[in-house]
Amino acid sequence: MNKDIFESILALMPGHVYWKDRECTLLGCNTTLAQTLGLASPSEIVGKTDYDLASKEEAEAIRAFDFSVMEKREEQIKEETYILPNGEKAIYLSKKSPLFDADSNVVGIVGISIDITDKKNAEKFELEKNLAEEKAHFSKVAAGSIATICGHLLPRLMPA
Q1: Among 58, 56, 76, which Cα is nearest to 66's?
Q2: Residue 140: phi, psi to the nearest 5?
Q3: Kindly report the CA angle at 50 between 46 and 52, in degrees rounded to 5?
Q4: Each residue of 51-101: pLDDT tens digit?
Q5: Is residue 152 left, alpha or beta, with left meaning phi > 0 and alpha meaning psi from -120 to 50?
Q6: For residue 4, how many C-alpha atoms fall within 13 Å in the half-sphere facing its CB?
Q7: Which among 9, 40, 137, 148 is placed 20 to 30 Å from 47, CA to CA?
Q8: pTM metric for this prediction
Q9: What DSSP character marks residue 17?
Q10: CA distances (Å), 146 to each of 111, 140, 155, in order?
Q11: DSSP-derived secondary structure for 36-79
């Protein structure tokens, strides 16, 4: 397969596709990730680390996940949160797998991260709405119960 076809396939893939070496230095990515990061082309990511592209805290969390994938020698899936260059918070579902050489040595990772921010926000909204409805229902039931109890007890407690 020639390089142009490979790059065309990568450009069409959903989400962010990227690969890193054993030290977590980026070796490449698809156009979608480059655009999200504000890079002119995927080639601009080569040689960068997570510290170049994210906050220190985010970079450390990303690297810990990457090193875990390489250490365990198996794919892993995790939600990761980033602050994008435009300042917006984004939540990604990331699947990362170790890359092996011909001798089965781990030489890096490959990952794909899908933006699930809208889905997570919708879930949060629905949860908050349900919680508000439950609180309203509880308040109504509690108020009714208190009124019933008071209605039964007050006549007994009050002298006639």
Answers
A1: 76
A2: -65, -45
A3: 75
A4: 999 999 999 999 999 999 999 999 999 999 888 888 889 999 999 999 999
A5: alpha
A6: 0
A7: 9
A8: 0.73
A9: E
A10: 57, 10, 14
A11: HTT-SSGGGGTT--HHHHS-HHHHHHHHHHHHHHHHHTS-EEEE
Rg (CA), the chain: 26
C-alpha–C-alpha distance, residues 10 and 30, integer Å: 5
Report helix, strand or coil for 142: helix
